[in-house]
Amino acid sequence: MAVDLRSIGMGLAFALMWSSAFTSARIIVADASPLFSLGLRFLISGILGVFIARMMGQSWRLSRGQWYATILFGICQNALYLGLNFVAMQTVEASLAAIIASTMPLLVALASWLIFRERLRPLGIAGLVAGFAGVALIMGARINAGVDLFGVMLCGIGALALTFATLAVRGATSGGNFMMVVGLQMLVGAAVLFAATPIFETVRINPTLPLALAFVYTTLVPGLAATLIWFMLLHRIGAIRAATFHFLNPVFGVAIAALLLGEALGPLDIVGVLITTVGILAVQLARQPVPPST
């Protein structure tokens, strides 16, 4: 499964879409309650996804592994990871949320090494050290600037939830019906979020043009298109190679937040982002299968 030009294009598109979601989420939670707005987004995305899947001739009949992945990702990725990030971004800047979320491939590699005894080459160990050091550098600067630690904790728990889901569904994406899987996992997330909404928040909506534009964008692009591209990429080149593209997320996430929201970046932020980016890339390259010698 070589990484061809089409796979590279898909990976770049996914990283850009995924990274932009933090900025659009920050805009949404400024004018709407986070859990309700995210649940509504998943409801619309899920219905659209299932409808498109049926138009493409895809079946409701998923394999047991696909149902497992659909339900687990619906809960861990859509409800927990994104739900906690939406709540956190009421007080945490989009750039910081993107950086914390970007640690997911580092956490996956660390857990695979320590728990599953997956062999990690010296480059990978160096990458783990660099990646977490970069995040620590950024966090130190932000804590000194008075960042909301509760919001940071929510982002961290969300990253752990996504890490758990990623490790738990290894190999469960095969079997086709990608759009149907995407649509159904969105509906699972919507159901969990709508159940949580009356418990944790009072629904509020302040109708503004930025809210409408950000909601439509988030629903269609990071929500539907990016998830579909990710599943197709997993099927095309495998989880380890696909995860390599995560190294772009800190750079893209910070750049988009700075460009669209005007979020300030200090020198330590820039250095930390670069160190984290290099660390993630090193970890992912170290986890690539070693080509057989000729």
Can you offer a commentary on this structure?
The chain has 294 residues and is mainly alpha-helical. It is built from 12 helices and no strands. Helix 1 crosses helix 4. The protein starts with a helix and ends in an 8-residue tail after the last helix.
Shape: globular
Structural class by secondary-structure content: mainly alpha
Number of strands: 0
Fraction of helical residues: over 70%
- Low-confidence sequence ranges: none
Q: What is the CA-based Rg, rounded?
A: 18 Å
Looking at this protein, list some descriptive labels.
294 residues; mainly alpha; 77% helix; 0% strand
Question: In summary, what is this structure?
Answer:
The protein has 294 residues and is mostly helical. It has twelve helices and no strands. The protein starts with a helix and ends in an 8-residue tail after the last helix.
Secondary-structure blueprint:
Layout (H helix, E strand, L loop, with lengths): L4 H27 L2 H22 L8 H25 L5 H8 L2 H11 L7 H23 L4 H20 L9 H23 L8 H29 L1 H5 L5 H13 L5 H20 L8
Helix pairs in contact: 1-4, 1-9, 1-11, 2-3, 2-8, 2-9, 3-7, 3-8, 4-7, 4-11, 5-7, 6-12, 8-9, 11-12
